[in-house]
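Notebook p. 47: complex prediction with iron/sulfur cluster.
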Amino acid sequence: MTNIFNIQNDIANLLSWYHKAGRTLPWRSYWPNLTPPYHVFLSEFMLQQTGVNTVVPYYRYFLKQWPTIHALANASIDDVTAAWAGLGYYARARNMHKSAQMISNGDGIFPKTIPELTNLPGIGPYTAGAILAFAFDEPSVVIDGNIERIVSRYFHIGTSLPALKLDLPSFYERMIPKTHRSDFPQALMDLGNEICTSTSPVCVRCPLAKGCKSEKTENPGLLPNRSNIKNKPVRKGQIFVISTKVKNEDKCKYLVYRRDENGLLGGMLAFPSQGWDEKDQKFDRAWRPLNIKWTELKPTIRHIFSHFISEIQVFTTEIDKPKNQIMPLKLQYHKKDKRKIPKEFQWMSADELKLPKLMQKALKLAQKHN
Ligand code: SF4
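Predicted complex, structure tokens below:
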């Protein structure tokens, strides 16, 4: 078993690496400075299902518009959800607003315990732990995907997911330093982004290498153990990427719509698709949203959802005159499809698109083909 003193030597190395190489983020403070709890609250709600780069401008806007928890609590829910547009998963905005009201209507002081925080709508153990660590320098447990990977590798824990999640907190607690507790989880997150990545950990550059048990194995990237995840049901599906060249510019626009708020990828921008979000898998594989020539792209893309794995064929087509062709055609959804027909399609360039992961993978494949 790795000695606690050795662990803390590694953590000291990690923290000094973080102070040199850590990312600068608008909601981040470096110890001994702490981020105000309201700022952590805002950023963590936004980051729950959205990447850092997308969140930054929204975070800045919200802070400017509603600089305190009381200001947010007093804002109308319509204003809050309108400002949230583009971040998707609108339930987060509603929960955030409701939580702000509960805190503001109480004594206005941020709760400082896990039970109090997880009692608020939309705040689970991860967000509660993050608020306690980043804003109050508490020794709370904060385990996201990056941290899960690093801790399982550092201690070489072979338990497969999802059971691994139950084992991790006690290992994580052994790594928490006596000071810089607000920095510690953020340092691990950056390490997971930069060095201990999911497929290719760069152990020679890693500040945790000395005590890391996986580093001494033939393939340090094998953990966490996902063998049980491989037993998840597989859903097939198709995504249709329709592009058009922008006149006099070397770029394309893509046809997207906003998905229904309820259900998978609710409220997010998406390409037309079918199958992957249907449990019964009775979709018509020959159906296409437009009766024109399509190219099927290789390879099939895979994306892991919490309760299934999707295997998607991506089809692409390019059209010349979007206004004349698409609008009269009105992309018809499959007749058997009981979902609502998307109300509005819009053309957006790749740099305007804020897509969920699955759609990002489809776009990447299509861009290689274009
Ligand atoms: S030594 Fe390698 S496997 Fe271990 S934490 Fe660092 S990068 Fe990850």
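Notes: Confidence is low (pLDDT under 50) at residues 324-329. The beta strands are 234-245, 252-258, 269-270, 273-274, 295-304, 309-318, 345-349.
Next step: compare against the earlier run before touching the bench.
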